[in-house]
Amino acid sequence: MSVIATTAFMAFFILSSNTSAETASITTEIVSAEPVQEVVEVHSVALTGYNAVPEQTDSDPSTTASGAYSNPEVIAARSVDLADELPFGTVIEFTLSGKNSKPPCGLSAVDHLVGYRVIADSMHPRKRNQIDIMFDNKDSVRIGVKRMNPAVVLGVCKNIEIRVVGHIDVKKMPRNQMELQLALGSATLAVRK
Q1: In whole angstroms, how far apart are CA 132 and each of 10, 70, 182?
Q2: Phi, psi angle pair for 97, to nearest 5°
Q3: What are the CA-CA distances from residue 53 to residues 61, 105, 114 (Å)?
Q4: What's 69's DSSP letter?
Q5: Cβ atoms of residues 53 and 123 within 8 Å
Q6: In a structure prediction context, what are the per-residue pLDDT tens digits for the chain, which is 193 residues long?
Q7: Nearest to 112, CA basis, from 140, 90, 77, 89
Q8: How far is CA 85 from the centre of its chain?
Q9: Is 164 helix (H, G, I), strand (E, B) or coil?
Q10: Distance from C-alpha of 28 to C-alpha of 163, rounded to nearest angstrom
Q11: Are residues 116 and 92 in contact, defined by beta-carbon separation less than 8 angstroms?
Q12: What DSSP string describes 140-181?
């Protein structure tokens, strides 16, 4: 009761004194403020996979467009039209929306290889609204009796939601999913403003 009375008295005192309208507005906002909720960036994209080989990248497949090493454990590429929303260093995760509770592609067969991904590579300019997951070209997943490259198994997934979960410095790229998860939980996580 005394906290409410004290807050009300302070608000009345500030509002009734010779303060500017701006100060009164700020005081009113402070008194009636509700908890701030974090805004989560979600994008609906097409999802594909690729391997760091010259046929699928450029003449230097071991280096991404951001300058980071092409690490299939953590790297993803984005189409150039998403550069403002997903700059290099953006960490994303993939989610299935309610309408896509069953993936419309091979995502369920390769999801154990996906995890979090760092946007560190760029796609050909003709691609639009698309994320490309880097897979190890030596990996394979079993589909029936065949073993196939995860990028081929994934295929083209339409309307997959990606959620931005953080930002890291691509010069300090984690080497694996465990290091990436630790970086996301650390206080040194670079938050994009």
Answers
A1: 56, 13, 23
A2: -75, 170
A3: 5, 23, 19
A4: B
A5: no
A6: 444 444 444 444 444 444 444 444 443 343 333 444 455 689 999 999 999 998 888 888 889 999 999 999 999 999 999 999 999 999 999 976 555 556 668 998 999 999 999 999 999 999 999 999 999 999 999 998 999 999 999 999 998 999 999 999 999 999 999 999 998 885 333 443 3
A7: 140
A8: 10
A9: strand
A10: 34
A11: yes
A12: -EEETTEEE-HHHHH--EEEEEEEEEEE--GGG--SSHHHHH
Give yes or no for a contact between 14 and 27, defined as CB atoms under 8 angstroms apart: yes
- CB-based burial of residue 185 (10 Å sphere; 0-12 exposed, 13-18 middle, 19+ buried)? exposed
Q: Which has the closest alpha carbon to 45: 10, 93, 115?
A: 93
Query: What would the two tokens of residue 155 be?
Result: 């295929």
3-state SS class at 49 = strand
SS3 of 46, please? strand
pTM > 0.85: yes or no: no
